[in-house]
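Example record

Each entry pairs one chain with its bound ligand, nicotinamide-adenine-dinucleotide.
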Amino acid sequence: MGSLEGKVAIVTGAGQGIGRGIATAMAKEGASIAVVDLNAEAAAGTAGEIERLGAAAIPLTCDIRDSAAVGAAVAAVVERFGTVDILVNNAMAARVGVPLEEITDEDLELAFRTGPMASTYFMRACFPHLKGGGRVINLRSGSEIQGLVGYAAYVSAKAAVGGLTRTAAREWGAHDITVNAICPFALSEGAKSYFDSRPDELDAALSGLSLRRTGDAEADIGRAAVFLAGPDASFITGCSIMVDGGGSFLG
Ligand SMILES: NC(=O)c1ccc[n+]([C@@H]2O[C@H](COP(=O)([O-])OP(=O)(O)OC[C@H]3O[C@@H](n4cnc5c(N)ncnc54)[C@H](O)[C@@H]3O)[C@@H](O)[C@H]2O)c1
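Structure tokens for the complex follow.
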């Protein structure tokens, strides 16, 4: 029996990249997965892959910047699967490689609305279902710890996700809900399209990793998420785990 047998997980941005890796890793442990993505075709693709693995999945097209759409997505999951046990706030969009003085209002809106605001919308909507053993996993970034050049909107939005994670862990511990975060590194579709036009930056990123390889979305990041969502992590909350091959160190 898988460690997540009978659990229901929402994974945002699961149409590709790290979200898809987390979704398939959790499905292989027996969880039913709500595949949330802005891209309907990508969401359907991941949901189909999960069904072929023998697990249940529902694709949900949703713009996570819209709190009403998030509420409707959570309601659809509850209608189909009865509850939500695991919430993975993975999706985020941002324009990066922009000097601080050139950041636009739209850049800030995109990063903050898809990052901490969308994560809060999902956490708020899922709260009644998560009470009594629920798990929340938020996605942060080593770039926040490094203060990566050209990433100001992204880094500040991810720092807000860190604050949200810690406060939620304090507030929701009384309800037996754990709230943790992962700082990943994997050559997702999003990362590939960024590094394709900047091969020097990829070389620099790789040479800064202790383990000198990129992570695998499912085998590395997905398995860490399975651990945080599973029975072995029931006493861990408010933590951020670096799953980035030793790119950044937290404390
Ligand atoms: N790839 C890395 O190495 C890395 C490093 C640090 C942090 N992260 C974080 O991990 C998470 C996943 O990253 P990734 O590289 O797999 O991303 P990605 O760009 O490959 O995929 C993001 C997914 O989110 C979806 N999405 C974007 N905007 C959306 C919206 N408004 N509503 C719904 N869905 C939306 C996209 O359609 C896409 O499927 C992000 O939070 C990212 O910041 C990634």
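The first helix runs from residue 17 to 28.
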